[in-house]
Amino acid sequence: MKSRFVFAILCLVFLVLETQAQNGALDRSIHRQVAVTFDDLPASGDLETKTYITQKLLKGLTDNKIPAIGFVNERQLFVRGEIDRRIALLQMWLDAGMELGNHTFSHIMIERNSLDAYKEDVIRGETVTGMLLREKGLKLRYFRHTQLRTGPTTEYQLGLNKFLIERGYTIAPVTLDNQEWVFAGAYRGARNSGDRTQMKRVGEAYIKYMDENFAFFEKLSRDFLGYEVKQTLLLHANELNADYLDELVNLMRKRGYTFVSLEDALKDKAYSLPEAQSKMGLSWIHRWMLAKGLEIRPEPTEPEWIADLNRSYARQ
What is the model's pLDDT at position 29? Predict the structure, then answer.
């Protein structure tokens, strides 16, 4: 009787390990690489919250030796009586050895603005970030589209690409796209309400979702490219990532990832592939697929209760 019980337990363990191995989580022969990027710097929230997020994110990044880059919306800097302290948060990123990029001045909505208006917003977003980089002997060289939307028409996209190249920018693509912002909204609402139980529940659901998301895009890369691209991960500077960065890093390490700079990731030959024009914000893997005439695949989505929680807090 005892031997049958032991055999059943061993079978169950084997089944779990086999399932995990199939999505690459436990395959020690797989060596993955990822560049970690953050949008919407300095960070979400008021000055106190921005400071908390910045300090905690940078501690996690430096402790884990991750060469991250943050993309700045300079409009966030211009609050009367707080400008110097908000700029100091960007300086902290550079002092920690991270890089900064341009994410437009106002997080402009590309589908609601002319190409000339979008160009103007890009230029306005260079002032402080460019100054801080020059003081470090560095250059403002990366641009990240807002909402990953590169242009509502082919003509718009080509015109914007030409403009960005002329200003010396390299476009910062994203392969590991995700719905992190929905979890972040739910988490922020629970945090502001002082509901620590709900915060923990959202945080745990976020890590589980990101595990599924990594598995999806890893497989998508293998299926389309025949290998796993050096991934580029999109995150945001918010409370959720500040509090759960260590858990997210541990997840990536379990999946076989090492951390590289954006510059190193973009040396992967896949990033030279033609990309399709799309009104949607999409992973670059899907853009490459569309350019080949292939259909995109449905990505993992957040649990409905997370979406509901995010909406409920947004209405408050």
Answer: 63
Owner of token pair 């940078």 = 58
Is residue 42 within 8 Å of residue 86, measured between CB atoms?
yes
8 Å CB contact between 102 and 126 = yes
Going from the C-alpha of 10 to that of each of 1, 81, 150, the distances in angstroms are: 14, 63, 51
How far, in Å, CA of 107 to CA of 76, rounded? 10
Percentage of the chain beyond pLDDT 90 is 89
Q: What domains are there in the chain, each with its CATH number? A: 29-315 (3.20.20.370)
pLDDT at 30: 79
- Nearest one of 48, 46, 58, 44 to 245, comparing CA atoms: 58
Q: Can you tell me the distance from the alpha carbon of 236 to that of 45, in angstroms, rounded to the nearest whole number?
A: 12
What sign does the CA torsion over 75, 76, 78, 83 have? negative
Question: For 4-31, how does the pLDDT look when each residue is reduced to its tens digit (9 = 90+)?
Answer: 544 444 444 444 444 454 455 555 567 9
